[in-house]
């Protein structure tokens, strides 16, 4: 269609005057077009992963419970032993306290021997001090 289209000029008057040329598929047809998504199945499925994690967590909770029971048994055993030994330890603490008190009074008598009217062991205040009842498990007096 390189001719100039003018009225009355000989040439092509319509598109229908063109020769018919049609593209055809190759013999045997075109290959089919793949439109579905085909991904390779790599790795375990979601259900398998979930089941594996559930099994691991179940085993972990089982071991945690067993450890808690063992710790509870050991704590009960320690508590029972402490209850048995407590009177002996308290007696030892009382003896240490009395020895400490005796040394303090001897020191007080030595330091205050020149003060007239001083009584060794008398309190200088009106408050009464008592040793702690369960102090056997703390540091001993020096």
Structure description:
The protein has a domain at about 75-115. It has one helix at about 45-110. The chain is an all-alpha fold. It is about 45% helix and about 0% strand. The longest helix is centred in the middle third of the chain and has 66 residues, at about 45-110.
SSE map:
Elements: H1 46-111
Give structural attributes.
142 residues, mainly alpha, single chain
Briefly note the structural class of the backbone.
mainly alpha
- Compute the separation of the termini in Å: 122 Å
Number of helices: 1
- Give the proportion of residues in helices: 40-55%
Question: How would you briefly describe this protein structure?
Answer:
The chain is an all-alpha fold and 142 residues long.
